[in-house]
Amino acid sequence: MSKQFDVVVIGAGPGGYIAAIRAAQLGFSVACVDAWENEKGGPAPGGTCTNVGCIPSKALLQSSEHFEHAGHAFKEHGIDVAGLSLNLGQMLKRKDGVVKQNNDGILYLFKKNKVTFFHGRAAFAGAAGADGYPLAITGPANETITGKQVIIATGSNARQLPGAEFDEKLILSNTGALAIEGVPAKLGVIGAGVIGLEMGSVWRRLGSDVTVLEGLPVFLGAVDEQIAKEANKLFTKQGLKINLGCKIGAITKGDNSVSVAYENAKGEAITAEFDKLIISIGRTPNTNGLGADQVGLALDERGFIAVDDDCKTNLPGVWAVGDVVRGPMLAHKAEEEGVAVAERMAGQHGHTNFNTIPWVIYTSPEIAWVGRTEQQLKADGVAYKAGTFPFLANGRARALGDTSGMVKFLADATTDEILGVHIIGPMASELISEAVVAMEFKASAEDIARICHAHPSLSEATKEAALAIDKRTLNF
């Protein structure tokens, strides 16, 4: 007889493991099934985010930033570093250690919250019966379990370019980009999105000559235009060679290099040779091996699992969250959906507000934003006011030695309600949280302008940008 659970969660990425824990807190008997494994074949819950995404990339970004500071910025602080050298093996080892800490932390949380964990791949084994949906687990121990309700949180995969499949040696996805064993002299990056810019920044800091090829004619099209232009200027100054409006042609692998033929924005035909090539052109929903056909689970025209606003699929008792459904492919969005679904199953009113989901690019300077951009407000015909404040005029930023960038507020011209906040500069990923809270509570720019912020702190730039809405900054 198969083991029976109130809830079975397929996938232990940010959406899955959080959904499982919240469901267990609400009194359900819960199982979570995940196939990720470490180098020893053991379980490695956490999904793409923990294993080859958010967590290891931030570890390498931090390490590479330390290396760059030691080679350049420390001297200004009166710190002379003689004989600076890179121990890439140790840097990668530290990154792997950070990943393992997170893997182990999730397993501990499952145990603490009495979530039964199965290491393997789960697939629907047939239609729902009296006890729920039968799910076949293929892994170290094959078995079948039953879930009265099922949450699918199977995440996404890196999108491949036709004819340039990932081998993770010369042509790299995010997975290979995090594990290059030697600093490539010349690194190519196709795609100037979050992953491309973050990985390009890591290897540039460590010594690579990095060329970024982007198909769109504008840089960071989803970002506020003023912020994106500032980012392009700063990244170019750092040494990233960013080429926009590129049409990628043939990609040819040699024994130890990759050549990319492309047409630039001027229509000129160019062939570039790289030691390694990172392809970061987006991600596709992962429904491989799920057995969707077995139960008639509906997918939309782009291959995502079709869900309604509450994350319900077309099957009774089956839900889906995170990268495998519509909406931004962000770990924290998946977490919020996971919590909301668990609470809805318990008869509560779980809620996810897509309008106040923060976005972050962890380059240096960091870029973070929430709400609408100036170009979106113009397109929607919304009357608004804008206020900006540069970190150049912020005392804490001067003390840090990092004065690049700005904070930008957008507020309704009539009500003063905050419609969007956009930051490029030091610790933007942390500063954006104040804006998220403010927007959740429908705050006005005046509310932020009237709140006391600690001095000296980077957060004062947020207050000053809010003051700038009415052209009354105090320090600029």
UniProtKB/TrEMBL annotation:
<comment type="similarity">
    <text>Belongs to the class-I pyridine nucleotide-disulfide oxidoreductase family.</text>
</comment>
<dbReference type="InterPro" id="IPR006258">
    <property type="entry name" value="Lipoamide_DH"/>
</dbReference>
<keyword id="KW-0547">Nucleotide-binding</keyword>
<dbReference type="GO" id="GO:0005737">
    <property type="term" value="C:cytoplasm"/>
</dbReference>
<feature type="domain" description="FAD/NAD(P)-binding">
    <location>
        <begin position="5"/>
        <end position="338"/>
    </location>
</feature>
<keyword id="KW-0520">NAD</keyword>
<feature type="binding site">
    <location>
        <position position="214"/>
    </location>
    <ligand>
        <name>NAD(+)</name>
    </ligand>
</feature>
<feature type="active site" description="Proton acceptor">
    <location>
        <position position="455"/>
    </location>
</feature>
<feature type="binding site">
    <location>
        <position position="58"/>
    </location>
    <ligand>
        <name>FAD</name>
    </ligand>
</feature>
<keyword id="KW-0963">Cytoplasm</keyword>
<dbReference type="InterPro" id="IPR001100">
    <property type="entry name" value="Pyr_nuc-diS_OxRdtase"/>
</dbReference>
<dbReference type="InterPro" id="IPR023753">
    <property type="entry name" value="FAD/NAD-binding_dom"/>
</dbReference>
<keyword id="KW-0676">Redox-active center</keyword>
<dbReference type="InterPro" id="IPR050151">
    <property type="entry name" value="Class-I_Pyr_Nuc-Dis_Oxidored"/>
</dbReference>
<dbReference type="InterPro" id="IPR016156">
    <property type="entry name" value="FAD/NAD-linked_Rdtase_dimer_sf"/>
</dbReference>
<feature type="binding site">
    <location>
        <position position="282"/>
    </location>
    <ligand>
        <name>NAD(+)</name>
    </ligand>
</feature>
<feature type="binding site">
    <location>
        <position position="323"/>
    </location>
    <ligand>
        <name>FAD</name>
    </ligand>
</feature>
<feature type="disulfide bond" description="Redox-active">
    <location>
        <begin position="49"/>
        <end position="54"/>
    </location>
</feature>
<dbReference type="Pfam" id="PF02852">
    <property type="entry name" value="Pyr_redox_dim"/>
</dbReference>
<dbReference type="GO" id="GO:0004148">
    <property type="term" value="F:dihydrolipoyl dehydrogenase (NADH) activity"/>
</dbReference>
<keyword id="KW-0274">FAD</keyword>
<keyword id="KW-0560">Oxidoreductase</keyword>
<dbReference type="Pfam" id="PF07992">
    <property type="entry name" value="Pyr_redox_2"/>
</dbReference>
<dbReference type="InterPro" id="IPR004099">
    <property type="entry name" value="Pyr_nucl-diS_OxRdtase_dimer"/>
</dbReference>
<feature type="binding site">
    <location>
        <begin position="191"/>
        <end position="198"/>
    </location>
    <ligand>
        <name>NAD(+)</name>
    </ligand>
</feature>
<protein>
    <recommendedName>
        <fullName>Dihydrolipoyl dehydrogenase</fullName>
        <ecNumber>1.8.1.4</ecNumber>
    </recommendedName>
</protein>
<keyword id="KW-0285">Flavoprotein</keyword>
<feature type="domain" description="Pyridine nucleotide-disulphide oxidoreductase dimerisation">
    <location>
        <begin position="357"/>
        <end position="466"/>
    </location>
</feature>
<feature type="binding site">
    <location>
        <begin position="154"/>
        <end position="156"/>
    </location>
    <ligand>
        <name>FAD</name>
    </ligand>
</feature>
<dbReference type="InterPro" id="IPR036188">
    <property type="entry name" value="FAD/NAD-bd_sf"/>
</dbReference>
<dbReference type="GO" id="GO:0050660">
    <property type="term" value="F:flavin adenine dinucleotide binding"/>
</dbReference>
<dbReference type="GO" id="GO:0006103">
    <property type="term" value="P:2-oxoglutarate metabolic process"/>
</dbReference>
<feature type="binding site">
    <location>
        <begin position="329"/>
        <end position="332"/>
    </location>
    <ligand>
        <name>FAD</name>
    </ligand>
</feature>
